[in-house]
Specification:
The protein is mainly alpha-helical. The protein is 76% helix and 0% strand. The chain has one domain: Four Helix Bundle (Hemerythrin (Met), subunit A).
């Protein structure tokens, strides 16, 4: 399943959008998937949508981790380390939410995704 989504992500990155624009769009989409779950917490299909949203976020952050860990990544080392630390927090929160779902656990992930997306777009959230 993830291989298919990774390929889709790679194909999208070949479009006319810049890498930063794509990353911002993907982070925003991930945040909105989580926000939808949070706002519709009592929906009958919540577990399915929550699982999908968490896995989507996990995939995105895993891709970022892989890119940031590459020795030829052009970002400054300290920035890469900071984002990797942030991604470790995201991973922990995702697994925590999978194990013990609660709508308030989604807020930090949503905020981080939206703030990072705004930064990639050059705007403040």
């Amino acid at each position: 399943m993830y291989a298919n989504q990774l390929q889709i992500y790679k194909n999208v990155s070949k479009s006319t959008m810049s890498g930063r624009e794509i990353e911002a769009a993907v982070l925003t989409k991930a945040a909105f998937k989580l926000k939808d779950c949070q706002e519709n917490w009592n929906a009958e299909d919540r577990n399915t949508k929550l699982d999908e949203a968490l896995k989507f976020n996990q995939l995105i952050w895993s891709i970022f981790q892989g890119e940031l860990a590459r020795p030829d990544n052009p970002l400054p080392k300290t920035l890469r380390q900071d984002i990797l630390s942030l991604s470790a927090f995201i991973d922990k929160r995702i697994f925590e939410t999978m194990a013990y779902p609660a709508p308030e656990k989604l807020t930090p992930i949503i905020n981080i995704n939206l703030n990072l997306a705004a930064g990639l777009k050059g705007k403040s959230a």
